[in-house]
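Recall the central idea of this unit: under ordinary conditions, the amino acid sequence of a chain determines the structure it adopts. In this exercise we apply that idea directly, starting from the sequence alone.
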Amino acid sequence: MRKLLVSLAALVFVAGTAVYAATAKDAPEKITIKDCQAKKAAVEFPHKMHIDNGVACSKCHHNQADLKAGAAEEVKTCASCHVTPEKAETPKCAEMSTTKNPFHITCVGCHKEEVAKKADSKAPTKCDQCHPKA
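Accordingly, the structure predicted from this sequence is:
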């Protein structure tokens, strides 16, 4: 379960420009996070693996606190809030910085927590582990 939480951070900050990607019951197995890429390759996010490992939906979908896997509720994509944020304090995903990009903050942060707890964790923490070279 902990391993999943680490991987989850890469949250699904679900790719896509639409406000809603799908319902929770139609959650995709994998998500390509591509709306915010600048210099690095898009990220293939193993969404189902995070769900199967027990990562709470709200870990990534933080504005939908009651969201549950399999629910009929529509799910907002990460891009719906983080491509062009309405509030100045909302992290913008076009930022490359590890301290300003919402994916880097949440995903890498969670992954590093997992590695700290379990040294043999496979949770990616390096750029090229999520952004493979073309």
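The two ends are 31 Å apart (CA to CA).
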